[in-house]
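Weekly structure sync, notes
Attendees: PL (lead), two postdocs, one rotation student
Agenda item 3: pending single-chain targets
PL asked that the sequence for the first pending target be pasted directly into the notes so everyone works from the same version. It is reproduced below exactly as submitted, 150 residues in total.
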Amino acid sequence: MSELRLEELSASNIVAANTLSLKPGQEQFVAPVSHSIAEAYVNPATAWPRVVLEDDEVVGFIMGNFDPDAQEPEFRSCIWRINVSADAQGHGVGRFAVLSLADEARVRGFERITVIFEPGEAGPAAFFDKLGFKPIDETPYGETIAALDL
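Predicted structure, written out during the meeting:
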């Protein structure tokens, strides 16, 4: 089994992260990594952008937000974005990324993490459900807000 590890988003891995290819139909459920890069630049105090490497290849990206003072509770400790390369899906990459973010949230003193996603056939609902996330609310746009208690 290959070794998975996290690395901070940096100049040496940003191109690989930004060119991760998803499975057909998944693009509608997640914004491109380039959007996260911009958000991380604008919110450097709270953003937590990381790539997932399998051996030495970038196979995933996760962006968290840790802001205990956020007005909306769903943004205090949350997953902003997760992308896993089409070829690496089903190999534990996404699970590893989410559990790594959960570990970071615990270290920072949070008791739960949240995620907001659009429901749909090729969407991430089953993935988050499998990890133990439970729907807690819905946005005005019909997106699911789910939480994982730590």
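Discussion points:
- The longest strand covers residues 57-66.
- The chain has a mean pLDDT of 90.
Action: rotation student to compare against the earlier draft before next sync.
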